[in-house]
Amino acid sequence: MQFTDVTYKVILKGMTSSEEKDILYGISGSVNPGEVLALMGPSGSGKTSLLNLLGGRISQPTIGGSITYNDQSYSKFLKSRLKSNRRLGLLAYIHLLLTNLPCDSAHV
Q1: Buried-most residue among 24, 39, 79, 80 (CB within 10 A)?
Q2: Do 52 and 10 meet the contact criterion of CB atoms below 8 Å apart?
Q3: Can you tell me the distance from the alpha carbon of 6 to that of 27, in angstroms, rounded to the nearest whole number?
Q4: Residues 10/20, Cβ–Cβ less than 8 Å
Q5: Burial classification of residue 8, based on how many CB atoms lie within 10 Å of its CB (0-12 exposed, 13-18 middle, 19 or more buried)
Q6: Distance between CA atoms of 33 and 103, rounded to whole angstroms?
Q7: Is the dihedral of CA 79, 83, 86, 89 positive or negative?
Q8: In the chain, how many domains are there?
Q9: 81 — phi, psi (to 5°)?
């Protein structure tokens, strides 16, 4: 997987006007077959947004840059092939999976 100059903006709609806010700007990187990608950074730095983008969970016109998988541009067809062949996977935060348990019951 390769991602080059990835950008992601959201549109903040107010009562009288709208404003674009950069969430990701100029992010590039690559992950080779057999490698694992881990992102680290402070809260609010865009880690989850980048992973959601790379995993195809976000598809809006406010996305820019290039994301390729084995030199193929990302598409709905490629997304279905990646998921069916288990070539791409995202692990959600554990607290999203254990929403019905109190803090002291979630032993990980």
Answers
A1: 24
A2: no
A3: 5
A4: yes
A5: buried
A6: 36
A7: positive
A8: 1
A9: -70, -40
The model's pLDDT over 27-70, given as tens digits with 9 standing for 90+, comes to: 999 988 888 878 888 988 998 888 888 877 777 778 888 888 87
Sign of the CA dihedral running 60, 64, 67, 73? positive
d(CA 3, CA 52): 13
**Domain range holding 93?**
2-105
Structure tokens at 81: 């092939």
pTM assigned to the model:
0.69
Q: Domain of 27: which CATH number? A: 3.40.50.300
What is the number of other CB atoms lying within 10 angstroms of the CB of residue 68? Answer: 14
Query: Given phi > 0 = left and psi -120 to 50 = alpha, else beta, which region is 70?
Result: left
pLDDT, residue 79, reads: 61
